[in-house]
Every structure is written in C-alpha cells, then in structure tokens.
Amino acid sequence: MTDKPRVLIVDDTPENIRLMMGILGKIYHLQAATSGLKAIEMAETAPQPDLILLDVVMPGMDGYTICQKLQDSEKTKHIPIIFVSGLDETSEQTKGLRLGAVDFISKPFRAELVRARVSNHLELKRHREALGPLLEARQQALRVSMELDVAGRLQKAMLPHSRFASRGCRLNSYLSPARAVGGDLFEHFFVDEHRLLFALGDVSDKGMAAALFLVQVRTLLRSVGRKALSSAHLLELLNEEIYADNQACMFVTFVCGLLHTATGELSLARGGHEHPLLFASGNRGEVLEFEGGPALGLRSGCHFPSYQTWLQPGQMLLFYTDGVTEAANPQGEIFGAERLAASLAFSGARSPEQAVEVLRSRLNEFVAGAEPADDITFLFLDWSPPHTPT
Description:
With 390 residues, the chain is an alpha+beta fold. The chain is built from 10 helices and 16 strands. Strands 6-7-16-15-12-13 form a 6-stranded antiparallel sheet. Strands 2-1-3-4-5 form a 5-stranded parallel sheet, sandwiched between helices. It starts with 5 loop residues before the first strand and ends in a 7-residue tail after the last strand. It has 2 domains: 128 residues, Response regulator (Rossmann fold); 225 residues, PPM-type phosphatase domain (Phosphatase 2c, domain 1), CATH 3.60.40.
C-alpha cells in the first residue's frame, strides 16, 4: 500500500473519518488524526502525506489555525490542503483559500466529488514535483546565462578599440567569441615614441576559465610590453611571467610584432601560433614562415626566435587565430589556409578596415550559419611612411 498516494484525514468526528475512508480507502493509503497537534505531528513525520483533508470546526485548534501552522513550516508547506466543512459561506471558503488551502469540499460529502477533487490535486502535486527540478535548472541556467552575458560585455570592454590609426599606422581587428566569453585576445599600444606593439593570442580551452586566464595574460602583456627590446624578448618576458603563476596549467599561443613607425622596420615573433600573412594589392598573400617557440606558460627558459623585415607601403599584415582556418560549414568542410590566403586576392581592399569586412564576409558566407566551434579573431595592419617636410 505504500506505493499509493498518502492522504491524511483530520477530523474530530470518527463518523466523518470512517465515511471518508469508505470513499477513498481502496484508492489511497489513508491516515487519520482527530486533533490539530496530532495532525501537525503526522504531517511532519516521514513518510509525509501527499495531501491533507482538513476539517474546519475542531475543538482546541481549529482547521484555519492548523492550516496556518502547516503553511508556515518549511517541512509541510508543500503539502496541499483541502478544507472539508459544513460552513458553506463564501467568506469561509475565501478565508481558507487565502491561508493556502487548494480547495474546499462542503459537507455532506458526495463521493464522486471527493474522489475527483482529491485525484485532481494529487495529480497537480505530482506535476509540480516533476517540474520543480526542471524549473530550478532552467532558472539556474538563466542566471548563468545572464552572468556570462555580463562577463562577455566586461571582457569586450577590456580589449582595445578594434580600429586604430596613428603615426602612419592603420590597424583594424575583429573578434567573435564562440561562447558568451572567449579565449582570444588582441592588443596594440606604443611602447615608446616610435615603436608600435601589436599582438594576438589564443588561450587554451574555452569558457570562463579561458576568459579569466586571458585577463591575466593581457595584464602581464601591458606590464612587460614596454620593457621589451624586441618581439622575441617580449615573448620571453611574457612566458616567464605567465609560467611563474600558472596554477591552472593553461597556456596561450601568441604572435606579436614591433613596428618602427618612422622606418617600417618590423620585428615578429610567435609562440605556438599560426604564421602571419603578408598581403599586397592583387596577390594571394605570402605566408611569413619563420621559426617560433612553444606556446606561452608551458615551461620556463623558452627561446623565441625573432623575424626581421620591413613593411612596405601598400602591404597589409594579417594575424589570425586557428578559429579562422578551422571554421566549418554545415557540410563539415573547413575554411582552411588556402581560402584564407585567397580571400583578399583581387578584393579591392585598400585598408585594414576594408580587409576586415572582406574576410568577415567571406567567413560568414562559408559557414552559412553553422554553430562556431572556436573563437574567431584576426587583425590587419598597414603602414605608410610619415610625411617629411621639404
């Protein structure tokens, strides 16, 4: 009988209890109490009743008082209460419902009505109990989503402006996280009067852990950037700082450049990151293949070779994360390095702003709405020699 719903009948008149048991006895597991104190004790004792049929007019503690005490208790407030009374006035029923009862059955009993109302409220209770965990999970997911949305906006606000133009340099970047918060970053600032530092990184893993690690990396980059003698020296300094306090054992792939804005002299270095691309008007892009070091944060004492060249007017340099080349369409094809190299050929892009729009458009056309698996970030830079008065 324990697998049947449990119904507690509370009435000071034994005849009413017997009558109610006759109506419900074959359907439910029934218990009875003839006083308010006993009813409260039984309601609090496991296994608890699934529903309480409560008489209103009782000596000592009336039904309204019993109902109030049950509703005030964390142990029993979830148990539905149906008042049973000969008081048929609307005011009495309203009072009971305001105290938390779910229904009101008037005496004399009608068996079909009693069975129907008890059955309906037990079914509603069953549905509430089934939906409770789902609603709680949904509310929790909503809270997490809202928190991630705020975190994503704060993270975006921490990054520098995507467009930058100063001292003959023009830079434009694009970042689209796969989730609310991402693990990619870009940065640019002057380390002295003539040298512009620009960088792009991709943190291992995704989500909140990557976002927090990203903040640490960017803070350290800002700290050591102005001490760097070259791009290779910058990565050596940054690697040591990340490794020194890397309790999460995370890492970041990184590529950076130092551009002398008076001469166009360019120093590049990378740690576990994709090779930069160099574009000129009308060509497919040249891959700047040069030796690099490991991703940053894995071990101490790493060496990062430096690549020296000169950026010429009319050329654009591209840094990007693997989220670009590994972007997939609904058929499972990836964008790939070849499409990337060809995406700007003969496009007519004459500035980093135009180049960003072209590549973004090509990527969107290719993925055709497919869900991204990784953050997508890229950065274009060009340079023109400063005007020298004659």
